[in-house]
Amino acid sequence: MELPACPVETTLMLIGDKWKVLILRDLMGGTKRFGELKKSIGHVTQKVLTAQLRDMEVKKLLTRKVYAEVPPRVEYTLTETGYSLKPILDSMVVWGSAYQKENGAQEDKRPAD
């Protein structure tokens, strides 16, 4: 995999998708099963979630462990590299909370079209 010269572009390449950030958010608390991730994330389709998880596994942000059971059980865990994104997610929480506080009430008062 060839990486962009710009470090910001590299980061965006790895986690620039909305679903990937939400997957990271959910896995920061520890290992989760596919169904738990799907339920927690919400409106993502099974196909999209599977594709995002596979891409994150290829990029070494998480590991996938399959148990030989019927039905099969699959668990996802962040790698050390995945956990190293925690400061970025923490900063997003701080910034997003401040934005909501400053702009949330204003957005609710927009005139209807």
Question: What are the defining features of this structure?
Answer:
single chain, 113 residues, alpha+beta, three-stranded antiparallel sheet, globular
Can you walk through the features of this model?
By secondary structure, this protein is an alpha+beta fold. Helix content is 59%, strand content 12%. It is built from six helices and three strands, in the order ααβααββαα. The chain has helices at 7-15, 18-27, 34-41, 46-58, 80-83, 86-108; strands at residues 32-33, 62-67, 73-78. A three-stranded antiparallel β-sheet has the order 1-3-2. Strand 2 (62-67) and strand 3 (73-78) form a beta hairpin.
Write the layout of secondary structure elements.
Layout (H helix, E strand, L loop, with lengths): L6 H9 L2 H10 L4 E2 H8 L4 H13 L3 E6 L5 E6 L1 H4 L2 H23 L5
Antiparallel strand pairs: 1-3, 2-3
